[in-house]
Amino acid sequence: MLSFAIPVALAMLAVAMGLNLLRLVKGPSTPDRILALDTLTINTIALVMLIGITASSAAYFEAALLIAMMGFIGTVALCKFLLGGDIIE
Q1: Diameter of the chain by CA atoms?
Q2: 3-state SS of the chain: helix, strand, coil percent to 5?
Q3: Burial 30-40, CB ≥16 within 10 A → b, else e
Q4: Which residues, in sequence order, are CB contacts of 71 under 8 Å at separation 6+?
Q5: pLDDT tens, per residue, the chain with 89 residues
Q6: Which pLDDT belongs to residue 67?
Q7: Domain boundaries in the chain?
Q8: How far is CA 51 from CA 48, 60, 76, 77, in A?
Q9: How far is CA 29 from CA 33, 42, 61, 68, in A?
Q10: What pLDDT shows up at residue 8?
Q11: Could you give the CA distance from residue 83 to residue 4 in angstroms, rounded to a whole number?
């Protein structure tokens, strides 16, 4: 069952990442681009998790956790910069 589900999930992730990249480039406003970048980060986490399931390695899951933490910090920093113009007060 996994031999069928993982390629289908990878194809769906590829489509989702392509659409996110399109929104990141074409986005009409800065908040749209920030949201697209955050969604692209979430899709990257899902991609790393799928690769980890395929490879049966715990290192990929730790990498996904690090990507999640960096994505959260990056989104918060971009939003704070957008609202106030300064990240560190």
Answers
A1: 52
A2: 85, 0, 15
A3: eeebbbbbbbb
A4: 38, 41, 42, 44, 45
A5: 888 999 999 999 999 999 999 999 998 998 899 999 999 999 999 999 999 999 999 999 999 999 999 999 999 988 888 888 777 76
A6: 96
A7: 2-84
A8: 5, 7, 27, 29
A9: 7, 20, 33, 24
A10: 95
A11: 45
Looking up tokens 């399109």 gives 22
Which residues are CB-neighbours of 21 under 8 A, at least 6 positions away? 36, 40
The two three-digit tokens of residue 86, written as one number: 């300064």
The single residue listed with the structure tokens 């959260």 is 72
User: Do 24 and 44 form a contact (C-beta atoms < 8 A)?
Assistant: no
Query: Cα 7 to chain center, whole Å?
Result: 19
